[in-house]
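#struct-help
A.M.: can someone run this one for me? Single chain, 161 residues.
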Amino acid sequence: MDEDILILLASDVEAQMGLIDDTFAKLEERGSGLEPDAQMQLESVAYQLHNLYNAIEDLLRVIAGYFENRITDTPHWHIQLLRRMSHEITGVRPTLLSQESYVLLNGLRSFRPFFRHAYAAPIDYDQLRINLDKARRLRPILERDVAGFLRRVDPGHLSSP
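D.P.: on it. Structure tokens below:
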């Protein structure tokens, strides 16, 4: 990959990781002291979990856009993108996501439709707590995965975000 393209890739990844970090911070702030009967807080945490997955999915799309592994707009493109970014494409792109981050992200992906269609029912505390814990475990793993990915793409020129 051309050095100018690598610099753009690193810049785009850093920018998106900044948004992801901001969302993690909001999630921590709003998830602190979470109580089952605090419906407004539950809704706020659910919203931030939704935002977090979307921001990470945008990161995956940014990275996929730099390589020859575009995802077509099918009903299952969300899981296809997630799966593809957890595998190396020999000669094209190294693996971005470890198995550990893939499993956590897939769980958060599954939460998203629940949140989108929760307008007719209150947010389930137990389900929200499980997903908040997944997000908390994901943060250092995702940071490690992204830094490792950038080093493998071009170990001589790029720093980790």
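A.M.: thanks! Helices lie at 3-31, 39-65, 77-84, 99-116, 125-153.
D.P.: also worth noting: The mean pLDDT is 88.
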